[in-house]
C-alpha cells in the first residue's frame, strides 16, 4: 500500500462478482485510500454480489444502466453528493455482446443484437464522458479509464462483434479525451488487458484455449485482474498526469510478440 489515492473520489462501473476486473480494482483503490461509489445495471446488481464489495470498501451502490443518460445523470449527481465533491477517477468496466451470448457467428449477426451490444460496450463510454463533461463533474487532473482488448487492432475470430465495439471504445477515448484535456486537464485512456477469467471473458468461444495460448506467447505471461487493478490505480494516481489519449497495452508483452519459443515447441 502506497496511499496513492488518498483523498481522491471516484465512480467504479462493472463490479459483478469477485472475478470482475472492477471488483479487484475497487479493492485496490480502497486499500490505496480512495473513496468511491459502485455502480452496475439493476439486473446485474440482483444477479451478482456487489453488496458484499460495498460493505468491504465502505461504499454505496447506485444502480445505473450505462446505456441510459438519465440514469448516468442521476448517478453523477448522487456520487458527488455522497462523496462530498467533484470526481477524481472513473473506471468504465462494461462489456457485453448479445450476438456472442446467442451464439451468432460474426458473419451471421442479428443487427438488433449488434446495436444493443455496441450501445452497452462502446457508446455507453461516450455517454458517461458526456454526462461528466456537461456537468463539469471532474476535478482538474482527474483520470478516466475504460477497459479494452487487442481484438480492436488484430483479428481474433471468436471475439466476434466485440472487436468492433472495442475499436469504437478506443476511438471515443481519444476523441473525447482531447476535449477533456483541453478544457479540464482531465486524462482519458483505455487499458488493453490480457484475456482474464471473468464472466464476460468466459463468454467468448474457445476462451480456455485462448488464455493458455496467450500465456505461452507473452514473455511475462498473462496479466491477471489484480495486475490490471494495480495498473489502473497507477493511472488514477498523480504519478501519471500527462498520460492521455492512449490505448495502454497491459498484456505481459503479448501485443508485440510474433511467436515465442514455447509456442514454437508445440509444433516441433
Ligand atoms: P464482468 O462480466 O465481470 O464485467 C462486465 C460488467 O459489465 C458486468 O458487471 C456487467 O453487469 C456490466 N454491464 C453489462 N451491461 C451493463 C449496462 N447496461 N450498464 C452497466 N453495466 C453493465 O467481466 P470483466 O472481464 O471484468 O469485464 C470488464 C471489462 O473488461 C469489459 O469492458 C471487458 O470487455 C474488458 N476486458 C475483459 C477481458 C477479459 O478477458 N475478461 C480482456 C480485456 C478487456
TrEMBL record:
EC supergroup of this enzyme: oxidoreductase
Keyword field: Fatty acid biosynthesis, Fatty acid metabolism, Lipid biosynthesis, Lipid metabolism, NAD, Oxidoreductase
Pathway: Lipid metabolism; fatty acid biosynthesis
Taxonomic superkingdom: Bacteria
Family matches, as Pfam families: adh_short_C2
Keyword Lipid metabolism in annotation: yes
SUPFAM superfamilies on file: NAD(P)-binding Rossmann-fold domains
Enzyme Commission numbers on file: 1.3.1.9
Catalyzed chemical reaction(s): a 2,3-saturated acyl-[ACP] + NAD(+) = a (2E)-enoyl-[ACP] + NADH + H(+)
Active site (UniProt): 149 (proton acceptor), 159 (proton acceptor)
Signal peptide segment: none
Residues at which NAD(+) binds: 14, 20-21, 94, 166
A GO term, aspect molecular function: enoyl-[acyl-carrier-protein] reductase (NADH) activity
Gene Ontology biological process terms, A to Z: fatty acid biosynthetic process
Family of the protein in this entry: Belongs to the short-chain dehydrogenases/reductases (SDR) family. FabI subfamily.
Name of the protein in question: Enoyl-[acyl-carrier-protein] reductase [NADH]
Annotated organism of origin: Flavobacterium restrictum
Amino acid at each position: 500500500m502506497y496511499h496513492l489515492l488518498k483523498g481522491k473520489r471516484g465512480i467504479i462501473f462493472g463490479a459483478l462478482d469477485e472475478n470482475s476486473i472492477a471488483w479487484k480494482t475497487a479493492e485496490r483503490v480502497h486499500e490505496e485510500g480512495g473513496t468511491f461509489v459502485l455502480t452496475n445495471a439493476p439486473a446485474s446488481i440482483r444477479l451478482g454480489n456487489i453488496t458484499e464489495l460495498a460493505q468491504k470498501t465502505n461504499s454505496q451502490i447506485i444502480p445505473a444502466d450505462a446505456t441510459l443518460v438519465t440514469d448516468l445523470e442521476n448517478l453523477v449527481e448522487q456520487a458527488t453528493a455522497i462523496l462530498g465533491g467533484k470526481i477524481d477517477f472513473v473506471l468504465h468496466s462494461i462489456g457485453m455482446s448479445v450476438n456472442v451470448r446467442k451464439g451468432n457467428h460474426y458473419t451471421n449477426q442479428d443487427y438488433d443484437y449488434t446495436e444493443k451490444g455496441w450501445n452497452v460496450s462502446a457508446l455507453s463510454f461516450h455517454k458517461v464522458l458526456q454526462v461528466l463533461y456537461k456537468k463539469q463533474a471532474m476535478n482538474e487532473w482527474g483520470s478516466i479509464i475504460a477497459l479494452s482488448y487487442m481484438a480492436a487492432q488484430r483479428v481474433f475470430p471468436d471475439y466476434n462483434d466485440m472487436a468492433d465495439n472495442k475499436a469504437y471504445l478506443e476511438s471515443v477515448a481519444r476523441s473525447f479525451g482531447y476535449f477533456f484535456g483541453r478544457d479540464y486537464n482531465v486524462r482519458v485512456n483505455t487499458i488493453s488487458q490480457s484475456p482474464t477469467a471473468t464472466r464476460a471473458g468466459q463468454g467468448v468461444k474457445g476462451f480456455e484455449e485462448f488464455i493458455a495460448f496467450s500465456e505461452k506467447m507473452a514473455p511475462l505471461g498473462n496479466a491477471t485482474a489484480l495486475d490490471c487493478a494495480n495498473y489502473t490505480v497507477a493511472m488514477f494516481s498523480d504519478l501519471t498526469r500527462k498520460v492521455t489519449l492512449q490505448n495502454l497495452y497491459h498484456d505481459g508483452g503479448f501485443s508485440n510478440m510474433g511467436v515465442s519459443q514455447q509456442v514454437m515447441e508445440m509444433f516441433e
